[in-house]
Design brief:
about 200 residues; mainly alpha; 9 helices; about 0% strand
């Protein structure tokens, strides 16, 4: 039989992960949690703050929670050079973690989602010929949602190191822009307030 205990375990873990994401999105005060986290990083961690901020990208990216608040927070808390380095490394590591999850226990779920993104078929074919270049272009020109792209790319033949390097370079412009915006904010509340809506603050 094609159905094994291993595949049953992977499917069960994936269902639990999806259920956790849905529950968190609808029940948890995400904005407040992120604001409290940034306050903790600012007041209690000292020189360890940038490292902890970078690591925080991993669970957010895996759970497909927009991490723009962290990127803005990096600029607000640490300024342009340090904030950019921390956010850039964190976003790349988070993207890599989601990629590995999609390539292992999450593969059945990702394959089932391919039908929702028909335009990705041509991307997958192009990646077979030039993986690094296509991943780089997808990061520079976000034709697909960032968090979903991490998982979709995991079922293509692009090697992990090529994926990580292309993602790191391709995400630099938007990361730099958001970190710079973060340096111009006057209060931590401006970092977390209204970023799920097209508010004046966000524009």
């Amino acid at each position: 039989m094609a159905f094994t205990w291993g595949s049953a375990l992977r499917i069960t873990l994936l269902i639990l992960l999806v259920a956790a994401v849905v529950t968190a999105c609808f029940t948890l005060p995400v904005e407040k949690i992120l604001k409290d986290f940034l306050t903790w990083v600012d007041q209690d961690l000292g020189p360890w703050g940038p490292l902890v901020l970078a690591v925080a990208y991993i669970p957010l990216t895996i759970l497909a929670v927009p991490a723009s608040v962290l990127t803005l927070g990096g600029g607000y808390l640490f300024g342009l050079p340090v904030g950019f380095v921390a956010d850039s490394i964190g976003a790349t590591i988070g993207a890599g973690a989601a990629f590995l999850l999609g390539r292992t226990i999450g593969k059945p779920f990702v394959i089932s989602k391919l039908k929702d993104y028909p335009q990705f078929r041509s991307v997958a074919l192009a990646i077979q010929r030039s993986g690094f270049k296509i991943v780089l272009l997808l990061r520079l020109v976000p034709l697909l949602p960032f968090n979903m792209l991490n998982y979709l790319l995991s079922v293509t033949p692009v090697p992990l190191l090529e994926y990580m390097l292309a993602s790191w370079i391709g995400m630099m412009p938007i990361t730099l822009a958001l970190v710079y915006v973060g340096t111009t904010l006057k209060d931590l509340s401006d970092v977390t307030h209204g970023w799920n809506e097209f508010s004046k603050t966000r524009w």
